[in-house]
Amino acid sequence: MIMQSLAGRALLCLLAGSIFTLGLAPFDLKLLSVVSMTLFALALTGQSWRPSLLLGWCFGLGFFGTGVSWVYVSINVYGHAPLALALTLTTLFCAGLALLFAIQAAVVALLRPAQPGLRIFLFASLWVAFEWLRTWLLTGFPWLFAGYIALDTAVAGWAPVIGVLGVSWLIAVTASGVAEIMIDRRASRGITLASWIVSIAGAGYLLSSVQWTEPRGEARKVAIYQPNIALEDTWERNNAPILLNDFLGHAKAYSPSSDLVVWPEGALPFYFDQAPGYMSELRRIASSNEGTIVTGMPTRAGNRRFNSIVSIDQSSQTYNKQKLVPFGEFVPLEESLRGVIDFFDLPMSNFSKGDASQLPLSSSMGPLAPFICYEIVYPDFVAKGSRSSNLLITISNDAWFGSSHGPHQHFQMARYRALELQKPLIRGANNGITAIIDEQGGIVAKLPQFERATLEDQVTPREGLTPFARFGSAPILLISLIFPLFIGIKARRQQGCY
Fold first, then answer.
1. CA 264 to chain centre
2. Is the pLDDT of residue 341 over 60?
3. Pairing verdict, β 368-372 and 391-396
4. Is 220 helix (H, G, I), strand (E, B) or coil?
5. Phi and psi (nearest 5°) for 297?
6. Total-model pTM
7. What is the spatial distance between Cα 151 and Cα 440, in angstroms, rounded to a whole number?
8. Is 265 an active-site residue?
9. Beta pairing partners, 292
């Protein structure tokens, strides 16, 4: 009955979008994401492009409304925006992103072919095309990709070959195939779909045994500090001496026994050039033990300020963040928005973008591929930046999101990067989730959130490139972009337009 009216279909899409998040961390009810996509495909059946716009927007509203609700925490708790304003801004953010699903649904309706097989592949191709669109549109928001639900499953073996977007395509084909069976329940279609699922899972299982990379050298000891510093304490000038003494004490305690000491994003509350004596002392501690200290801290060059990672041993080397967070690290339309609410006046909200040609960071463990916070969620960006490195490192400060599911989603995506590239990843976060991740995306060791502690374990760098590291998402994007074009040309020819 619910499918017999547009209002019923819209409600179904809102519900379907809302349950997608349950397939991702920290819930990991993976099948619910597949159910979500299936219901979405089912609701679009037989609809013209105009009602499909509404259905897609409703799905997107539920999708982003539950998936990125943690944005509210940043705006209300740390931006000090009133409750009503924080809810309004969060709603507008989700509603704006939902327009992408509206357009996606309209295109599905406009191009919908008569053949079931073509409909299945059209839905999957457009799903991936719009996931890719989210990686760069308006600086990019590559969050909530369907492929992430494959982590810790047999299908995960595909990730080093086709990346998260490729796995999204496999999942979308499956979901759309289920929708087609629900429309036409012929046994032959059920057998075909079952064969597809078994083949994908079986191939993924076999691929998971392939060693795309190999160890480089012996295991080395790493110490990752999770200081659990409140955001307001980080920016409070009077707290600076306390924080500096704390990190200096940590260096003296752990550097002698560790090849690599890692501190989180923004750990040191001063510019690199402001405290030459302090940095010299860190350099002395690290070099005397033939180790390396890696820390997050701001740097500057002329009038430009950067969110940076600094590698400290006998010398110092800096990586400046390239993927900046809108409103968090820079303010679009700055003259109009700065001063409207405190969220737009945060001390670190006017950083400059780092140069794209930066080299890996040197360390006692070999070249490190560095990524700061949000950068780790960009699959192709990470793949490109890791080709000359044997070890991935990402530092973050997820205190912005409190106890929401945002940090867990962020951590899941970091694990996926290690899996795609088959290289170990070191993750240092201010209040969690701090962890060491192996080349299969597995958790070697991690710290509980919201605790001050140091994680010590061993990491073995690995060399070599996976197919995804070599080619990125280009192969699956070609399929996802060309297939809808092919369907469109085919439809117009059938209509006598050519």
1. 18
2. no
3. parallel
4. strand
5. -170, 155
6. 0.94
7. 10
8. yes
9. 260
Residue tagged active-site, from 131, 180, 321, 439: 321
Q: Which of 131, 265, 375, 420 is catalytic?
A: 265
Catalytic residue of the set 373, 375, 420, 446: 373
The C-alpha atoms of residue 121 and residue 493 are separated, in whole angstroms, by 20
Largest CA distance in the chain: 78
Instruction: Tell me phi and psi for residue 215, to 5 degrees.
Output: -60, 145
pLDDT at 328: 67
Tokens of 41: 């495909």
321 has catalytic annotation:
yes
Give 164-190 pLDDT, tens digit per residue.
Answer: 999 999 999 999 999 999 998 888 889
pLDDT band at 379 (very low <50, low <70, confident <90, very high): very high
Could you tell me whether strands 316-320 and 453-459 are parallel, antiparallel, or unpaired per DSSP bridges? Answer: unpaired
**Residue 331 identity:** V
Catalytic-residue membership of 58: no
Please provide the DSSP assignment of 442-481 as one string: -EEEE--TT--EEEEEEE--EE---HHHHHTTHHHHHHHH
Q: Per-residue DSSP letters for 350-408?
A: TPPPPPTTPPPBP-TTS-EEEEEGGGGG-HHHHHHHHTT-SEEEEEE-GGGGTTSSHHH
Rounded distance, CA 227 to CA 429, Å?
A: 8
